[in-house]
Structures are given as C-alpha cells and as structure tokens.
Amino acid sequence: MKRLFLFVAAAILALPALADEGMWLLPLLKQQKFAEMQALGLRLSDGEVYSADAPSLKDAVVRFGGGCTGEIISPDGLVLTNHHCGYGSIQRHSTLEHDYLTDGFWAMSRSEELPNPGLTVTFIDKIDDVTDYVMGELKKIKDPNSKEFVSSKYLNGLAKTKV
User: Fold this and answer.
1) How many CB atoms within 10 Å of residue 86?
2) For labelling, which of 7, 43, 55, 139 has a CA lying 20 to 30 Å from the CA of 118?
3) Range of the domain at 145
4) Phi-psi category of 77—alpha, beta or left, where left has phi over 0 and alpha has psi -120 to 50?
5) In this structure, are 89 and 42 located in the same domain?
6) How far apart are CA 115 and CA 56, in angstroms?
7) How far apart are CA 155 and CA 161, in angstroms?
8) CA 59 – CA 61 distance, rounded (Å)
9) Rounded CA gap, 40 and 34, in Å?
C-alpha cells in the first residue's frame, strides 16, 4: 500500500514537468511552433528568428567545438556557451597558480584573452531538405542491416553530395 501511494504521488508530482521537446525545422517554424512561441511571450517576428535570405537569430547561433551550441553576442565575435562545452579549454589554460576551473577568468581587454587553437564554431549557411534524396539512396543498399546503412558518416556524406 505504501509503495502504491508513493508511486501515485510521484506520478502526480511529475505532471507539471512535461517538456515540449522535439526537433523543429527552422524553415517550417512558422507552421510548426511560432504561434505557440508568441503566446508564450516571444516578441520577435518569424523572419527575425529564421530567414534563409536575411540576417536572423540563426546567424547568431553556432555549433561550438564538436557539438555544443554557442551564441555570438558582439559584433567582434564574442561567443557564449555552457561551462561544460568550454571545460577542456579552460582546463588547458589552468595552472597551479591560476585555477580557472575553480576561480574563473575574466579578460579585461582583448590582449588578455587566452587563445584556443583548433577550437572552431560553425555557422548555418543554409538548410536543405535532403530527405527524399537520402531515402532514395538508402533504398539502393542491399543489406539494410549493414553498419553503413545507419552510420552518421554515411548519411552526412549522402546529404553533402546532394547539396
């Protein structure tokens, strides 16, 4: 009885934690989620969020390093990201005398900034729907259980040949 009560209580308490997740395709944002975003308080137009032909928020959001996101927040290219995304770079700059992981670091001028050779950010150039092309190419594979069939390297290669 006690377990049943705890289960029901946990289930009821978890209800407000429902997340509205999913992958929204930026070119289809207006049809997919935009009205709801405005109802929740968004004051930008759909074109300010995403435009293929004009500057928009998509131009400020970058892929940081190998897979995190970052945001460009200045005309000079200052990038913000999450702590865990920059952890390795912060660790490489840390020493016994300067424990940036614990104490943080603030460059007061450009000359005080610490370089991170090899760290890159990637901008969205354009978004193309390559679904039909990729699905057609996948149908040509004889053994659908092969590793190549599901490898992201293979699928990315297919998508790049289309673009």
Assistant:
1) 20
2) 55
3) 131-162
4) left
5) yes
6) 28
7) 10
8) 6
9) 10
Phi and psi angles of residue 71, each rounded to the nearest 5 degrees, phi first: -130, 135
What is the model's pTM?
Answer: 0.61
Cα separation, 71 vs 32, in Å, equals 23
Question: Could you please report the per-residue DSSP string of 51-72?
Answer: -SSS--GGGTEEEETTTEEEEE
* C-alpha span between 135 and 150 (Å, rounded): 12
Q: How many CB atoms lie within 10 A of CB 64?
A: 20
Pair (119, 135) in one structural domain: no
- Same domain for 82 and 148, yes or no, is no
Asked if 40 contacts 34 with a C-beta cutoff of 8 angstroms, the reply is no
Q: Give the residues across from 80 on adjacent strands.
A: 71
Do 78 and 143 have their domain in common? no
H/E element, 137: helix 131-139
- Number of domain units in the chain: 2
> What's the pLDDT tens digit per position in 86-138?
999 999 999 999 999 999 999 999 899 999 999 999 988 888 888 888 788 77
Same domain membership, residue 138 and residue 96? no
Is there a single domain that holds both residue 79 and residue 48?
yes
